[in-house]
């Protein structure tokens, strides 16, 4: 999948413009990178479209522990959208990521996330 196809999926699933979808994608991947280990971030990055890799790579190994609500707040703040749009965006980006990286790699990532976030990623929220 190309970066454009990834962002178009996010735009479709969130019913937003491609500009908003691009911002949601970058913010979600950057926030995800903060929340998971450096090794897991590297594994994800290796399977992502080239243009999206810099958003998921991180210099440190240790994840920053923060809850679901903080994840959504960070994405909303970074993209200047309301929390509901941020939540739909996070769900859409996680779904698109799962489609790109494959089930096993995605499940390895979910194992490092709060249960609420893993549930959002496993739901059909954001998909039409």
UniProtKB/TrEMBL annotation:
InterPro entries: DUF2267, DUF2267_sf. It holds the Pfam family DUF2267. It comes from the Bacteria. This is DUF2267 domain-containing protein. It comes from Phytohabitans kaempferiae. The lineage of its organism: Bacteria, Bacillati, Actinomycetota, Actinomycetes, Micromonosporales.
């Amino acid at each position: 999948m190309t970066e454009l196809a990834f962002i178009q999926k996010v735009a479709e699933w969130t019913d937003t413009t491609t500009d908003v979808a691009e911002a949601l994608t970058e913010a979600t991947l950057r926030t995800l990178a903060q929340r998971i280990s450096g090794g897991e971030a590297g594994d994800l990055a290796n399977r992502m479209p080239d243009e999206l890799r810099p958003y998921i790579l991180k210099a440190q190994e240790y994840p920053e522990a923060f809850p679901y609500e903080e994840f959504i707040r960070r994405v909303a703040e970074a993209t200047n959208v309301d929390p509901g749009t941020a939540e739909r965006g996070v769900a859409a980006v996680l779904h698109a990521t799962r489609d790109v990286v494959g089930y096993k790699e995605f499940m390895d990532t979910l194992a490092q996330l709060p249960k609420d976030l893993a549930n959002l990623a496993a739901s059909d929220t954001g998909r039409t």
